[in-house]
Amino acid sequence: MKYLGWDELLPGAILFSFKEDLDKDASYILPEERPYAETNSHEAYVGDWRVMKPVYNRDLCIDCQFCWVYCPDVSIISRDKKMIGVDYDHCKGCGICVEVCPTNPKSLLMFEERIPNEEALAKWPEKE
Amino acid sequence: MAEKMELNEVEVWDGNMAASQALRQAQIDVVAAYPITPSTPVVQNYGSFLANGYIDGEFVMVESEHAAMSGCVGAAAAGGRVATATSSQGFALMAEVLYQASGMRLPIVLVVVNRALAAPLNVNGDHSDMYMGRDSGWIQLDAFNAQEAYDLTLMAFKIGEDPEIRLPVMSHQDGFITSHTAENVRPLSDDEAYEFIGEYPMVNAMLDLAKPVTYGVQTEEDWHFEHKARQHHDLMTKVFGKVDEVFDAFEKKTGRKYNIVEKYDMDDAEVAIVALGTTVDTAKYVADNLRKTKGIKAGVVAPRLFRPWPHEQMMEALSGVKAVACLDRSSPNGAFGMLFNEVSATMYQSDNHPVITNYIYGLGGRDFTVEHAEEIYSELVANAEAGKPTTPLQQFIGLRGPKLSFY
């Protein structure tokens, strides 16, 4: 990323979120289609802050959206109320999504960062 | 749509009610507040107005003053007109967020009902909290009575929100003596007041969803210094002209004249008291009496605008005097008082070099009496005649026990 020069920020050290002005409210545009500016935190990879990661199990999920609502860093990806997965570029591994997941067994579980997701899914616990 | 309130030409309001009414008339979008004596009634009255249908905006009840100012920062960044009120310990708890507000150039209005800072715990008025805010990057205006608290709180919006300025503004008044004393106040009607302030000029709003922005970036050594320098530059060069402009417009509307530095009997004054808050009115009364009874050419100078510091206006106001007493109502805790330091620095650059002395007074709400002011003026007369200080440079006045003075 190109670093901004000392005279390129607006007063208040404000950054515009998009490369260009939108012709409509950004909430009507899917995140993957928004013209994020380089300086937008959406473009920054902070996945390496994580020690444990949440792994998502589609087979058990009931799409209740609890994880999407509770995630403090907008790192649960959901489209049309269907859960898709975890945004590992931004997830900090706090585990709140796992905590609020209501299924039995849970559809999201924390695993060590080094364990591949396929391996994690293979050793998913049984219903209690 | 909010109800309008029918106001009398002259209302009997205390300083808190005066501030509440100014906030109501400003049609604020968000007030996030936490109560603390003596500013509690400002937001309590505001809450009543809201409950009775006189306000359309949001009132957010928070768990602390830190949260109150944080809520204000968020709402202002989102793109709304925002205000709150506090005092003393609450002000201290806001301190961290005050710098966020000014650094992000968010024109929040903060009504500060001045009160002493603990310990020992004390709910009465002194200027410790006002002084604490002086490096926070806010514009600070000081009212000496309830009418001025109303007027200045209204004007605070117009000054801070100007797109050229975009800085938060504190409207100060003295705890209890102003905030809880009912006085005659001449308000504007709701329509006149709102017309005077105008609609909120939204700039770079986070919730402008077609052009949203990010607030609160990290800059480090590459940018921080330049950013702070630009803010200081705007405080030093843009604010004075804007304040004059708003004061002029207000005079045209109401006939009430405000000045960046207020002067009383200064045309031929040889001795002057420089003070803030309700003390100004006491000093004016005494100066008047001394002129009539003893022929002492006494005057009073008071910075209406406390930050940014009105260097040129203060120099001009004191250009003819021989002796000046700077009265500080805040414990300087190991230095001269702030007014003494600022006035001394200003007058060192002047052609006129009056004898300047410092008085610490009124801490924790201790009365500043007519006798105290008379004593100060008589010491000033002696200093003026001697051409040098005849007293220690710093004296505590109104303090029990042995006299306390330094240098």
Describe the structure.
The complex is a heterodimer of chains A (128) and B (407). Chain A is of the alpha+beta class. Chain A contains three helices and five strands, in the order ββαββαβα. Helices cover 12% and strands 16% of the residues of chain A. In chain A, strands 2-5 form a two-stranded antiparallel ribbon. Chain A has a two-stranded antiparallel sheet with strand order 3-4. The mean pLDDT of chain A is 93. The mean pLDDT of chain B is 97. In chain B, helix 1 packs parallel to helix 6 and helix 11 (311-317) packs across helix 12. Helices cover 41% and strands 18% of the residues of chain B. In chain B, the strands form three sheets. In chain B, strands 3-2-4-5-7-6-13 form a seven-stranded mixed beta sheet, with helices on both faces. Chain B contains 13 helices and 17 strands. Chain B is globular and about 70 Å long. In chain B, helix 10 links the parallel strand 11 (271-274) and strand 12. Classes of the chains: A alpha+beta (128), B alpha/beta (407). Strand 1 of chain A pairs antiparallel with strand 9 of chain B, so a sheet runs across the interface.
| Rg value of chain B | 21 Å
Q: Treating each run of at least 4 consecutive H or I residues as one helix, how many helices of chain B?
A: 13
**Would you tell me the overall average pLDDT of chain B?**
97
Helical/strand content category of chain B: alpha/beta
**Shape, principal axes of CA atoms of chain A:** elongated
Low-pLDDT regions of chain A = none
Stretches with pLDDT under 50, minimum 5 residues of chain B: none
* Distance, first to last CA of chain B: 62 Å
